[in-house]
Design brief:
globular, 83 residues, alpha+beta
Length: 83
């Protein structure tokens, strides 16, 4: 199963790397697959790439669903294996 998360682009540099905000967490992603993406746009992010530009409304609908599941919305640290 693939999961793409909506994110808002806050910066794009000359090498097509963008900084995005995902639920308050910033990540660096590539916008090579979405050449029309610009600062302020919402994109779907999968495996470090923006794969589609989406409307703010569509992004917020998905983010609202994610917020209903705190285990998905938090940038949780992996639990250590039990010995």
């Amino acid at each position: 199963m693939c999961l793409a998360i909506p994110a808002q682009i806050t910066e794009i540099d000359e090498s097509n790397m963008a900084t995005v905000d995902i639920l308050g967490v910033t990540r660096a992603i590539s916008v090579d697959l979405t050449p029309a993406a610009k600062v302020g746009d919402f994109v779907l992010v999968h495996a470090g790439f923006a794969i589609e530009v989406v409307s703010e409304e569509a992004a917020n609908e998905t983010l609202d669903l994610i917020r209903q599941f705190p285990e998905f919305a938090n940038d949780a640290q992996p639990q250590p294996a039990m010995a």
